[in-house]
Amino acid sequence: MSSSSGTYSGSNGHMCTYETCVLRTSLTVENFGRRFLGCSRYKVGPKCPFFKWIDNPTCVRGNEAAHFVQQKMDLQRSELQLAHERERAATQVAVEATQMAEIAQDRAAKATERERKFRASSVQAKEIAVRALEQERK
Description:
GO terms for molecular function: zinc ion binding. Helix content is 57%, strand content 14%. It is α+β, with helices and mostly antiparallel strands and 138 residues long.
């Protein structure tokens, strides 16, 4: 896979060189913080298998610390995901509350209109009754 000139050939014929490679940092528990060279096209098209460690292996204590850091990061991701879910739920509740308020306002307006019509018809009924009594007296 490698040659002495610093050129590396991937399985798909893609040629990697030190100039085209990207310096990356490992976030795995076993090699946390350890730097390596990888193909700059590793996420594009066919995968190039080029990989070369730059740093020496980390010590056991470093790996132990990395494990705790990874746990902390996982916990923070979980907490962030939970916060997003709560935010989505709160937004949904707010939307539903707004819809319910609009329905209540519409019903209140209809009830007010019914009451106005009832009062108007009551006034008309009273007027008719008064006229009927007046005509009876005549």
